[in-house]
Every structure is written in C-alpha cells, then in structure tokens.
Fold this sequence. Notes:
Thiol Ester Dehydrase, Chain A, alpha+beta, 2 helices, single chain, 20% helix, 5-stranded antiparallel β-sheet
Amino acid sequence: MEKVIFEEVATGQPLPLLSFHLSRDDVISFHHTVGNRRHDFVSPVMVLAIAMSKMTEVMPLPFSTLHVGQQLAWYSPVLIDDHLNGQFILRNRRHSENSIFHYFDLEISKSGKLIADGKITLQTEA
Length: 126
C-alpha cells in the first residue's frame, strides 16, 4: 500500500481503509502485556491501539507526535477472531503557539456494520 504523507493530508480526506484481524494469540498477548489475567474478551483499548498502529503503517507520523486523546462510542462488542475495518478521516487541524492539533474521525466496522466511531486527537510541534 502506498504511503500517505502526514503533512499533506487535507481536511476531509479519508486515509486508505485499514483491515485487521484480532486473533486469539493477539488478544492473549495484549492482555498479558497490560497485566490482565482474563483473556476471553477483546478490550476496546486493544482495538483502538491496533487501528492506530495500522494507521501509522500507511501514514508515518512525525517524531514529535503525541496521541493526546480519543473519544469513541461502541455500538457492538468485538469478538476474538473478528475481522475489522478502520477508516480515519482528517476532520481539521488547529494551530496554537507551539503545537498543531490534528483531529481525526474514526469509524470501525465489521462486515459492513458500524461497531464504533469517534475522534482521535494527535499533537505535533508547530
């Protein structure tokens, strides 16, 4: 897949559709890493982390980038072995004195059905 240049993404521009699979091994590894002894469910934080990881594969972020927030609404549970799609769209950028805030909308779907949506905020140096 062709790389997207972070600084060149325009307001309203969708990034390439991302696809990912949540295998049992991935779920167990995630829960082990965060110290959770239960391995029989998919954490919403795990879904967000994988979606953002996939985003950075197609759109590498500047070194100074911070993930400063997210707000997601979930409409359906995510199950082990689900195949998901993630769609990021740049909503806007706001400049402050020393920083630029980049606001992305995110939709996560399964088999064409929306299961979560919300906003992700990234911060870079101005």
